[in-house]
Specification:
By secondary structure, this protein is an alpha+beta fold. The protein has helices spanning 24-31, 37-45, 119-127, 160-171, 246-253, 306-320; strands spanning 7-14, 49-51, 54-55, 68-74, 77-78, 90-93, 97-102, 137-138, 141-142, 151-157, 176-184, 191-195, 198-200, 208-210, 219-228, 232-239, 282-290, 297-301. The longest helix is centred in the last third of the chain and has 15 residues, at 306-320.
């Protein structure tokens, strides 16, 4: 049984009559909403929860009225990824979370092929001692991701409570996320909704695709902000869901792939048009959510990056010269 010597926090809970017969993990999650169900399960299975002198290691066990439970929460351990001093554009930061404006080329999370040099490595170094632990590790809580070559706003949690709250908001589609994109061609309907379940393409496992069977439900609201003749358009995409490559796949699905997208589009040669952008023209421009601690609505806007703006101006110039139709 674990002793309190390696714990930084001791919590107690007495089971009431109304809770008798319920699952242990559900009772604990209701009593301590700052701890996720997965974190509670981890603590239970590691022997951190006791009733008297007996350790309880079954998260699904039914509780009995009058039982006094003691949970010992150990100090968070150093994260496996190492902190790296990578420049970040911090838009907002407090004790609970951090909002950054991600640059193109920055991978969000370590994975095969990108073991370091990621946003997670950068946040570990930047946040330092202000990280309070996610899942028992001193690391930032990533609740959503942006593709490596997509720019714009992201939020990461610094505490377990913030991570749980933001995760629930994303799951409930309560997060405001607005992207701006430059697409080839101009949608016939200037505003609309693209619906289509997304999953791995059966023809190319490296790509996502709209699937007739299976996949995860996905819904994107789009609106044409400005058309450049019939050559291209600046569109605004609001995400109702947040699937991998959602905007890129949905816009390609309706026949308007993003300019510069090497996966879902194809190079196009337009007389008189020189494009300098070397990535998909996609920018996470707006991010809004409820603060996990203050419950106030936070909303952030990000200006378009230089390469996106240059492409926009090139398209605008093409129309001004009468060559955009």
């Amino acid at each position: 049984m674990t002793t309190s010597s390696d714990a930084v926090e001791r919590r107690t809970l007495t089971i009431g009559e109304s809770q008798a017969g319920e699952r242990l993990d559900r009772v604990l999650a209701a009593a301590w909403p700052d701890l996720s169900r997965s974190r509670l399960k981890q603590l239970i299975e590691s022997g951190r929860l006791t009733a008297g002198v007996r350790a309880i290691d079954d998260a699904a066990a039914k509780v009995k009225a009058g039982t006094e439970l003691v949970l010992l929460i150990p100090a968070a351990i150093p994260a496996v990824p190492e902190g790296q001093a990578i420049p970040l554009n911090v838009v907002y930061e407090d004790a609970h979370l951090i909002v950054i404006d991600k640059a193109a080329g920055l991978v969000v999370h370590p994975a095969a092929g990108n073991r370091d040099g990621t946003l997670v490595n950068a946040l570990i170094a930047h946040c330092g001692e202000s990280l309070r632990g996610i899942g028992g590790e001193l690391r930032p809580g990533i609740v959503h991701r942006i593709d490596k070559d997509t720019t714009g706003l992201m939020v990461a949690a610094k505490t377990e409570k913030a991570h749980t709250s933001l995760g629930k908001q994303f799951a409930a589609h309560a997060i405001e996320r607005v992207y701006k994109a430059l697409v080839w061609g101009v949608p016939r309907e200037r505003a609309g909704v693209v619906e289509g379940a997304l999953g791995r393409s059966p023809l190319n496992r490296q790509k996502m695709a709209v699937l007739r069977v299976g996949g995860k439900a996905a819904r994107t609201h789009y609106k044409v902000i400005e058309a450049f003749g019939s050559t291209a358009a600046l569109v605004e995409c609001k995400l109702e869901t947040g699937r991998t490559h959602q905007v890129r796949v949905h816009m390609a699905h309706i026949g308007h792939p993003l300019i510069g997208d090497p996966v879902y589009g194809r190079p196009r040669s337009i007389p008189g048009l020189t494009l300098t952008i070397k990535r998909q023209a996609l920018h996470a421009a707006v991010l809004g959510f409820q603060h996990p601690a203050t419950h106030k609505t936070l909303r952030f806007e990000s200006v378009l990056p230089d390469d996106f703006t240059e492409t926009y101006l090139a398209l605008k110039g093409l129309v001004a010269e009468g060559r955009g139709s």
